Amino acid sequence: MTHVASPDVRGTARSRLPAPRVSASALTKVLLRHASAAPAGPSPEQRLIVAVLVQAMVDARFGTSAERQQARRFLLGNDLSAWTQWVQLEPSFVREVAIRAGYLLPDTVRAASPVQPSDGAHDRSTDAGLQ
């Protein structure tokens, strides 16, 4: 009896995604350039925060299933604004950089954005954190 290797489902799913347009080091340079920095350059703390943001982008694209899910939750959630305020970056700018660089798919962002009721009715699912 011959042993048939199982297909690499994870590799196949990732191969369907377009390759990122820029490297992680280029992302770091872009975010540091836009971050509020002293005339002497970004502080070590600013560099650390930008490194966390870039790592989340890389994890959202190349991590394991759990890492991708956690990174997307971070990039699309309210936690991102808490991190970006330390370097005076807008969360929407960081998300846009991640999308344009090819680390975050635009469909993911649209799917994660909550729909606001148009008739003035209050949606109770947002109160319970269900989105």
UniProtKB/TrEMBL annotation:
Residues 120-131 have a biased composition (Basic and acidic residues). Residues 111-131 are annotated as: Disordered. This is Uncharacterized protein. It comes from Ottowia testudinis.
